[in-house]
Amino acid sequence: MGLDRYQSMRDFDRTQEPSGTTDPHLSDHERQGRPRFVVQEHHATSLHWDFRLERGGVLVSWAVPRGIPPDPRVNHLAVHTEDHPLSYYDFEGEIPKGEYGGGKVILWDQGTYREEKFSDREVMVVLDGQRARGRYVLFHTDAKNWMMHRMDPPEDPARELMPSDARPLDPVTAALPSDAGGWRFSVAWGGTRAAVAVDGGRCVARTSAGEEVTKRWPELGAFGRAVGALPVVFVGELVRPGPKAPATLFIEDITWLDGHSTAPLAFSDRRALLEGLELEGDAWKTAPLYDDGAVLLDAARAQGLAGVLAFRTAAPLEPPRLVPISSR
Known about the structure:
By secondary structure, this protein is mainly beta. Helix content is 12%, strand content 40%.
């Protein structure tokens, strides 16, 4: 395409994006037979990942809404976009609101690639990056739409597909545990308990009965974008304090993470994985845990909440205990 379309779509007095007017015809990498690729996480109106291949003095580009597929069992849509200048390879920053593609751009991966085929219908390359490695093919379907497919097996041979119908385990009503040292406690808010599956920055929330409730909680859109490319299934409680009040997702647990079920792990280990993600936002919180269930139950009673959830720290995935405020 060249850069005419790219340059016509941007006001370089407003955006920090490179214009490409002083770029060389070819980079040293391409001259030496080691063309580069870059993947940029783009928080525009719709979160996506921009996949760009250095070729012929430009970056040939696709927008991939769900990111680079890590598994050959799934294909991801890739929308062909305008060529970008070579200097875009290192671009990170905030594109101003109102400009084309307005939003934050983050470098997700960079590396080199080997071309095996490049035509108007099919592009086959071998990527050598920090995150994306192996043989990939992009094939044209219709108009600007292509599909991106990983041809190699997953780098992790034990990788599993994300469960398509993830659901939370309903709490079991019980008294406070007598062996309190083996348990951790959190507030039971009385909201909607759900498993929240995030894939490619998109959320699907389901109850234990299998009802999809995603559309009832628009706050999940921002939560998915915050999680980004990491495929993960959380369990938590969606709480709305009033009819028009914003909701909060209190995240309790992780049941599946980046290709693997975490169900066999002890609750304490699953929580360590969750806390390592540092998920704190205006509409989502990692649910705090407490050591003293009796004190927490008294506090929940004083605030008119539903009760307390008790999690056995050494246990694999199992239903938590629900200790209602009426139990003491």
